[in-house]
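ok so for the tutorial part 2 we go from a plain amino acid sequence to predicted C-alpha cells. step 1 is just haveing the sequence, like this:
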Amino acid sequence: MTFRTLTSGLALAGLLSACSVLPKSEPLTFYQMPAPALDRHTGPALPISLRITTPASSSALQTTRILVTPDNNTLSSYQGARWADPNPSLLREQLVQAFEQDGSFSSVTTETHAVRADVHLFSDLRQFQTRYQGQQASVVIELDAKLIDPSTRAVIAARHFSVQQPLPDTAVNAVVDNFGVASEQLARELLAWSRDALNDVEPTSLK
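step 2 — the prediction. this is what the C-alpha cells look like for a chain of 207 residues:
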C-alpha cells in the first residue's frame, strides 16, 4: 500500500466518522389552513370590485413557522411543524376564499392578478400566533385594516381587528384547526365592516 493510498483511506474514514455524528435534519410536517365555510350573503352584491393585498408584517411573522408566544416577550415555534405558505400569504388566501364564498362584492382579487379594482383592502398583520396567559393558550390574530380608493389614495375606512380563539388542546393538529376557526371569525368581521363602509361608495368604473 502506498503512502498516498493510506492517506486517502484515512481521510475517507475520518469523513465518514464526522458524518455519523452530524445532527439529523428535523422532520417537517407542512400544514394547510382549514378552508373557511361561509354561507352566501343573502343581500345583493355591491357593484364594487375588491382587491385584498397580502398583509404587511414584521420580519418575525414573514415565515412558514407556526408561531407561539409562551410568555409576554418570547416568540418561538412548534417543533417540526410548518405552514404551507408564509403567515401573511396564508391569511390573505383565507380572506379571499371567505370573501368569495360570501359574495358581497362583484369580484375579489389579489395583487397577483393584473386587473383593476375599485377598492383595495390593505392591512398590517400585528399578531398571528398562539399566546399563553398562565396555563391558558389561545390563537391570537390582530390586524389593522384600511379600505383605500386607488384612484385618490384616500382612506375610506380603517379599523383594528383582534380575534382570540381559546385552545382546549395544544397539540399541533388542534392548534391548526383553531387557527382556521380564528381566521374565519376575522373574515366574518372584515366582511361585515367592509359591506357597511362601502355600501354607499360609488365604484370607480362608474365615475
